[in-house]
Structure formats: C-alpha cells, structure tokens
Amino acid sequence: MAIGFFFILGLALLVGGAELLVRGASRLAGLAGVSPLIIGLTVVAFGTSAPELAVSVRSALLSTAGADIALGNVVGSNIFNILFILGLSALIVPLGVSRQLIRIDAPIMAGVSFLLFFMALDGRISHIDGLVLFLGILAYTFFTIRQGKKAGNSTAGTQRNESGDRRYVAARSVMLVVFGLAMLVLGAHWLVNTAVVMAERLGISDLVIGLTVVAAGTSLPEAATSVMASIKGERDIAVGNIIGSNIFNILAVLGISALAAPHGIRVPLPAMWFDIPILIATAAVCLPVFITGFRISRMEGLLFLGYYLLYTLYLVMAAAHHKSLPFLTHIIVLFVLPLTGIMILVPLYIQMRKGSVPGFHGRLR
C-alpha cells in the first residue's frame, strides 16, 4: 500500500514540478532578455540533469565499479533523452526546431559525443580528460548566454514591461524554478525507488531493472519537463532542454565524475564499441531530422520511440545471451537501418533541392 502511495506521489511531483519549472523558466526568459530556447539550453537543461550529476559523482567516488556506473548513466541517459523523450514529446505535439539548434547546439551535441569516443579509445576517461570536459561546459555556457542575449534583445522588450514590479516577478519566477526542480528531483527519487521495489516483487531480474527503471530514472525530470513544455506550447524549451541536458551530461557530469574518481573512469569494451557508437548515432541523426521542415514530426517521434524499445530489447537479449539475438541483429542490419536511412535522408535531399536547408541554398539545383 505504502509503495503504491509513494509511486503515485512521485508521479504527481514530477508533473507538478515540470509545470512550475516551465512556467518559471518561460517568465525568466522574458525578464532576462534572452529567448526561451536559451533558458531551455541552460537553466532548465542543467537543472533537470541534477539527478545524473548526483548519481554519477556519488558512484565515481565509491569504487571502480561505481565509476563504470557513472559512464553508463551518462551514455544511457543521453540515448534515452533523444530517442524516448524527444520521441514521446513529438508524438504528443510535433516540435518546431529553431535555426540556432540546427546551426550551433545540435552540432555541438554531436561533436562532444564524438569527443567522448576519442577520449575513451585508451580505455579510460582520465583526470585530464575530465578537466577538458569541465572547461568545455564553462565555455559552452558562456557562449550560449552571450548569443542568447543578442538574439533575445529584439523580442524581450515587450515582455519586460508587462509588470510594474520586475523584481517581484523575477523573484517569483526564480522560486518557481527552484521549487519545480526540487519537486522533479524528489519525485524522480521516489518513483525510481518504488518502481525498483515493485519490479523485484514481481520477480523481474536485477539486470532488467538496471537496464530499464534505473537507467531511465535519472532522466525522468527531463521527460516530465519536455512533455509538459510541448503540451504548453513552449517547444523551444522542450527541445532545448534535451539538447542542453545531453551536452551538460557529457561535459559537466562526466567531466566532474572523471575528476572525482580516484583513477578516472574506466571504459568497458561493450560501452566503447556498442553503447557509445549508439550515442553518437542518436546525436548525429538529430541533424537531418531537425533540418527537414525545421520540426520533429509525429512519424519521426514514433521512429525514435521504436528505436529506444529496440535498443533496450537488444541490451536485454545480449545480456541474457538469448538464442534469438543473431536473428534480431540481422533484422536490424538488413531492414531497420536501411529503411530508417531512406525515411530520413530522402526528405532531407528533397529539402536541399528546394534550397531551404541553411548553408545549402542553391547548391543542388
């Protein structure tokens, strides 16, 4: 009875916290003279990544095995953010994508994913690597806020005069963000813990719990926030939250964890040659998806969700050494990947022919 109560309470805190966070963040955007996209990329994204930061740093301090958890948490959360959260949000309401995301932030997300791969080639994310990553998040934050002020000055003027007492509105907005984040973190904690207990009572193995409930658990704040933002029409916050969270997870969460771990973070071979390449693929596929129509359609959202389910199924079958794994691998290689390439690249080619892709105007005519 108590388990069910805390599960429902955790879910309610997630929904309520997401509502407060989105409302406060959108108001702060107007008051600060920056666009909602910048708030989504920084304040909201960094705040909703607090569970990843807490779990990864604590794990890195414990032991070598804990450091492995830190890496898995970051890689798994980033894959979950793109495939599941963006997919679910787009399935509810097609998401518009700003040109800044296409030109700057999505390429940065793909770039830091490639950087992680090259840092991991020697089998370890060292203290030096961690320092480089951490300096990267400082540079990204400074650059993003500076760019946002330039873009937001032209649109924020009317919002600045909506209230006679801007200090009161600003203080109230900050409180909404703080309380929203606190509710998200507490709600995610209760929801994950109760879900694990319920899964164990149902006889589900620790492996499946780790690959599903725990791996996705630290991304629940991002999920609640992006879904709520898409419903409320704050689509820049919905997409910016995911892109910003993924950049923060690699540069800040993994960087700080590598600095905190006594011997850096070990990179297991399965993560090096399977999970990190999947991470790179999900980051890279965002560019052609975002460019076609400058939106994420419901069909593309459904495609993302299907890929996350397929990825999870593959992980479970591989860990269990299931006899059907070779058959699933052939299905993915021979049918799923080629079909996905056609669905994504053909619309991109058509749009490039029309000259509506930034940087490609007239080149294919």
Structure description:
The strands form 2 sheets. The protein has a two-stranded antiparallel sheet. The longest helix has 36 residues, at 166-201. The protein has one domain (2-297): Up-down Bundle (A middle domain of Talin 1). α1 packs across α9 (220-231) and α8 packs antiparallel against α12. Helix content is 83%, strand content 2%. It is an all-alpha fold and 365 residues long. The radius of gyration is 20 Å and the shape is globular.
CATH class: Mainly Alpha
- The CATH homologous superfamily corresponds to NCX, central ion-binding region
Low-confidence stretches: 155-163
Beta-strand percent range: under 5%
Average pLDDT: 81
Spatial strand sequence of the major β-sheet: 1-4
SSE order, one letter for each helix or strand: HHHHEHEHHHHHEHEHH
Described by strand count, sense and barrel closure, the largest sheet is:
2 strands, antiparallel
Number of helices: 13
CATH architecture annotation name: Up-down Bundle
Query: The CATH topology is what?
Result: A middle domain of Talin 1
Helix content: over 70%
User: What structural class do the secondary elements suggest?
Assistant: mainly alpha
